[in-house]
Prior knowledge:
Helix content is 46%, strand content 13%. It has seven helices and three strands, in the order βαβααβαααα. It has helices spanning 13-26, 46-54, 56-62, 88-95, 99-102, 111-131, 140-150; strands at 3-9, 33-40, 67-72. Strands 1-2-3 form a three-stranded parallel β-sheet, sandwiched between helices. It is flat and about 50 Å long.
Amino acid sequence: MTLVKWFLCDATQESLDKCQESVAAYKAKGEQVIHVLVKNQGLSLQTQWESVEANAESKALLQSPQMQQMALPKFPHYERGGDSLCDSMYRLTELGWNFAQAIQKSDAFFVLERQRIVNFLKQFSAQVDASKIWDGAPKRSELQSLNSASKPAKGFQPTVAH
């Protein structure tokens, strides 16, 4: 079995140190533990990530065989405040909603805002798919057939020895 540890990081050293500690702790386990560094582009500028990648210690971490990388795209400027009245992320936080709730028809978000949230989620899903982390993982249909195969037959009554 392979364990996948996810680290949502900004480009700060503190954020990267936690990921480095985990890679070091699981290094002996080899491919049984995969670390995924998710670069939060909403909290860090591309130039900050370029500086991280230029650092020798960080470069070693990022090139480790147990490390994969992907980006969490930044929300469009007009969706995270700035000069616009349209601040979906702020409203999401204030409402305590997740993305699934935000994309449902409601008075809290206009159609265009919901579509931008959907596009953001599609971008991130494409990043996850491109990482191929889930290649080889059982598909939902396989899990369902395993589940139904492991259920006792109808009328089966387990007995307990006394």
